[in-house]
Amino acid sequence: xxxxxxxxxxxxxxxxxxxxxxxxxxxxxxxxxxxxxxxxxxxxxxxxxxxxxxxxxxxxxxxxxxxxxxxxxxxxxxxxxxxxxxxxxxxxxxxxxxxxxxxxxxxxxxxxxxxxxxxxxxxxxxxxxxxxxxxxxxxxxxxxxxxxxxxxxxxxxxxxxxxxxxxxxxxxxxxxxxxxxxxxxxxxxxxxxxxxxxxxxxxxxxxxxxxxxxxxxxxxxxxxxxxxxxxxxxxxxxxxxxxxxxxxxxxxxxxxxxxxxxxxxxxxxxxxxxxxxxxxxxxxxxxxxxxxxxxxxxxxxxxxxxxxxxxxxxxxxxxxxxxxxxxxxxxxxxxxxxxxxxxxxxxxxxxxxxxxxxxxxxxxxxxxxxxxxxxx
Length: 376
Ligand SMILES: *Cc1c(COP(=O)(O)O)cnc(C)c1O
What we know:
Layout: H1 9-14, H2 17-30, H3 37-50, E1 54-58, H4 61-71, E2 79-83, H5 89-96, E3 100-104, H6 115-120, E4 126-130, H7 141-151, E5 154-158, E6 166-168, E7 174-176, E8 183-187, E9 201-205, H8 208-217, E10 222-224, E11 227-228, H9 239-248, H10 252-270, E12 276-277, E13 292-296, H11 301-310, H12 340-348, E14 349-352, H13 360-374
Parallel strand pairs: 2-3, 2-4, 4-5, 5-8
Antiparallel strand pairs: 1-9, 6-7, 8-9, 10-11, 12-13, 13-14
Helix pairs in contact: 2-9, 3-9, 4-5, 4-8, 10-13
The structure holds pyridoxal-5'-phosphate.
């Protein structure tokens, strides 16, 4: 059996090695390392894939969130609501810009922002909502959009974990994750579903004016060379990363399929035990399984975590501490009873190996090792 990995980047590279190697060499020889034709072509190809008017490539997914918030003109003191259960980047940029993060609880089934908690958190200072499409499926965007419309708020979708997921509206129309709100952001960090071989990110919007503003902000606030109209940042996707992403983008749907197949295997194997809750997929979204995260009951989760490690099965606890309890983001306004779900999830969740290269021998070993422990 091949050694089991949490994410098998090398196994995925092996299958496209020739193309990638020759392309990287081509870019090196072109000497267009920044903002070259590869970046422009990738931008167009991603716009086409997502069916969105504008993609603005940038340096990473954290920058993408920050730049999106700058582009919307959010000002210090504005409140931005996001989920308590996400990677810290989401809340970090809110705080960094002097905005006020307001964390709210998530749904137990889907790990995504809870709409009732969202509604309760709105104040006259609220300016934006950041739904995170956690682990690969979309938050309840139709409900988020309704709340946003009622209170005149911006919606910034953090799509770092769900690129490629499809959202279906009640009227049957479909949109790609990240193209539903005012602006969407993603990350091309190597372990993400569409990963490059370094750092990368992008911002999506259908709004022409916002796209223009964002293109200036990523480039030092310049709209004309050496004329700085607004305070910007330096956030670029480099040409080598764009070239790699151009090879991987056409494979993204097949990558999603491979992840789904592995997820189906897990879910079927675990259907025999009541002590494992397998991922619940909302009916309005597909799931691209950035993570396959189970919730365990009547079982010592930390002991299971260690047991799997002892058997050579990597696994992880995403996330071990809710953001409202992190030193950097604690706030006297938060009450523990408002975070019933995240306070429970941190003790019950476990993410199993999930990537495009898992084979049935590995999946069988993982599921039987989990079940042997649970049923012992
Ligand atoms: C990975 C991730 C980010 C940040 O992306 P980077 O490219 O690492 O900066 C932001 N939000 C979520 C939900 C993520 O998973």
